[in-house]
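Researcher: I'm preparing a figure for a lab meeting and need a structural model of a single chain. I don't have an experimental structure, so a prediction will have to do for now. The sequence is pasted below. Please return the structure as tokens so I can convert it later.
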Amino acid sequence: MKAPPKVIAGVATFVDDRLGAGSFLKRNLRKIFPDHWSFLLGEIALYSFIILLLTGTFLTFWFKPSMGEVAYSGSYQPLVGVRMSEAYASALHISFDVRGGLLIRQIHHWAALLFVAGIMVHMLRVFFTGAYRKPRELNWLIGLTLFTLALVEGLTGYSLPDDLLSGAGLRITQGVMLGIPVVGTYMSFFLFGGEYPGQEVISRFFTIHILLIPGLLLALISAHLILMWVQKHTQMPGPGRTETNVVGGPFYPAFMAKSGAFFLFTFAVLALLGTLAEINPIWLFGPYTPADISAGSQPDFYMGFLEGALRLMPAWEINVLGHTIPLSVLIPALVPLGILMTGLAIYPFAERWITGDRREHHLCDRPRNNPHRTAIGVAGITFYGILWLLGANDEISAFFHVGLYETTIFGRFAIFIGPALAYLIAYQICIGLQHRDAEVLSHGVESGVIRRMPSGEYIEVHTPAAEDIAEHIRGKAEIPVIESGVDSGGIPPKLARTVLGRLRARMSRTYGTDHVPLDEAHKEAHKEAHEEKHAAIGAGERVDAGEREPHTER
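Model: Understood. Here is the structure written out token by token.
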């Protein structure tokens, strides 16, 4: 067709004449998006959230958020006649009597896990590549708020069925609240509507779970996407990529087609998991009663680190003015989460203060090119991972036949030693990888061809690295360092005249020191290779054109 159909053309003209949307759509549909696999991690979280909204809407049609007691009379025979809450009975009804109910329940639960996991790995990608730097600090804080709300959303949804497992989790939540000085008792009575377990907690969690937090998540996700659209997407270094352009495909049709297919793929994986992998079989746990407790109970993975903190903490408490403050509950509940969230929130601003770098950044860093940042991130992951692992110390003890006391003592030492070792190891790995990059630029890559020199020595012939690989390596940016040296008169700069200024300058030198500058390494290696070639030619050795050293432009 040489022209669009009259129906489409007529509607488009009508809308454009009245709203002026033609130029807006034309400009935004041609917006360029970079093409890199790591940028799809955030999309996983977005698509999981969409699936959560769809499946959650389905479940609300049959779920009854009530603590009222009823006798079960549904299809699951082992529980017939058992007294339980209406919430638990309706969850059983969805699982056994609503057509497709169990499938939707399981897809919903798997989507919740994938949603939190998607946010986590997306934030790690942003952190390790430095994509949080100016002008994206606000978007980083929005993403951190999304992660926090996702944890609370998961906790409230996990508690709604009122089975024995979720009830045990609620009991821990109530204990943490009571551990908060002064206001803890009021918070517990407000949430539970009286003494635990109360009559209001399920209905209040239901409102929070389906209305309050989803609304906040939807608003923040929209703001996150709008800011990303306005500020343009970051991109990895490579051929033709600079701080002022974006290399990739247009939003329409390339990105839309790819994203549509990725959404369907994400949905297919969740549907497959919901069909074949059982999760949260509440009928096996039974209804919650305060007198019962299940052995080996574990929360969903994203709450595991708080569980581990509770299990590792010694039984410490202090008495102040006749009041007991249970540090064994208060510290695990607030300190690990505070360290992770506060550290992530202030890191972009702390890095800018240390380096003095106030430039805009649209090219991502390779994690190896900022070894201190990468090492800090790996240390944080190790801290989280040890707490998460020790949240199942009873299962580890039973499965590996190790004493529970020994695993707990190991965890108490590992939580301090592990992050420090992880930092040192990650830092050295980054430096080693930088050396490898410099070697690739200076000597090329191994060709697998062995050649004998006139002297009798055997060497392996190296070939120049592919241009895209070389440009990826040359994308390494120098980390700024604050000037702290004295001038000709022996006077230090203004920033380094105070104790805080000298500390800042010392931190800046440590953080920004480049141990493997590509320029010098490349020039030195190029000079050595050039001398070796002349020596070989003088000895009668022929040099083929394909064996020339790669040319590097900076």
